[in-house]
Structure prediction request, 412 residues.
Amino acid sequence: MITSSNTILDAARLRQDFPVLQQRVHDKPLVYLDNAATTQKPQAVIDRLMRYYSEENANIHRGVHALSVAATDAYDAARERVQHFINAADTREIVFVRGATEAINLVAATYGRSTIGAGDEVVISEMEHHSNIVPWQMLCEEKGARLRVVPITDSGDLQLDAYARLLGPRTRLVAVTHVSNALGTINPIEAIIRLAHDRGVPVLVDGAQAVAHMAVDVQALGCDFYAFSGHKVFGPTGVGVLYGRASLLEAMPPYQGGGDMIRSVTFERTLYADIPQKFEAGTPNIAGVVGLDAAIAYLSDVGLDRVAAYEHELLAYGTEALSRIDGLRLTGTAQRKAGILSFVIDDIHPHDIGTILDRDGVAIRAGHHCCQPLMARLGVPATARASLACYNTREDIDALVSSIRDAKAVFA
Ligand SMILES: Cc1ncc(COP(=O)(O)O)c(C=O)c1O
Prediction:
């Protein structure tokens, strides 16, 4: 428990809201430390999904009947909630998608295809998730454009000087992660955006690992696009958000064609709907959107500033505890970090660590974390990663440490 801004976050109480966390795994209490992969869902989200399917299920925007009106109202209210959650200027700037991956692909396929040509450059960083690499690579290949990569330091900080030097007359877009899923680095997004905007270059921020852990204000950041996934912010899978500056979204061609994204259709010509509907072809994940609404309501109630302060303290506790284990090396020791503890241990493969920890009921992730170029940069094939959420406690860290010591004993 910590006190911050005169408020207290009681994680032990918070975790009572999450049914999954109450169970035992391999006859041990579950210690869930794989939150960067996906977060658990509070009862409020589960109940909301139940209520939607039990009482409100209908297609949106099409019916005059009561259920359709209720479903449409719930869907529209969720858009408003998301707008306030990230402080967008307008609900029209919130596009519902499948997740961060689809949000980035949408921008690559529409903004990218219509503005980037042969010889142009897209700037990303060495710490990007594959979902913020591959769409740009595909675009560059199609257009004869060039992917430029900002290097990181050994501790996992983005090299801002090198970034500034990479920005040139052919730079058309910067796409960078807010928080690294593999290192925990919190990037200096404001500075990254300022340097790009000085040269008239728009910036997409991959916020998949940020929104559940800190207050995000897209207007204060000044970003042009911001992408995140519902399932990493205590909401359902299969739903996510693309924030886009209205003027950019308006100028972009549609992503997919179909129902709901049109104003009128004839065989000769289609007029597209206004934003954001222009980018939401077909029946969307209505239940997912409604569930995301409940998740954001829940998290906002807890309070992002309290979450950030609490996780900061827990990260410090975890960093200190892991640093005391002989032969364990933390990968990702940036100045500003969110709750990611990535590590390698002499002579033990991360997958073996993960398997032994699982026997103790401790759920972590082992692998390349969809960051193969980053692993190559770090000179490791994989890492073990414990990732925190606001329901984790010091007891979870203690269980992690004790289980790692067991793993070391097995391999000694
Ligand atoms: C930094 C980052 N970006 C993007 C993604 C992709 O998210 P999703 O698979 O939900 O689309 C992830 C998922 O792990 C991530 O960590």
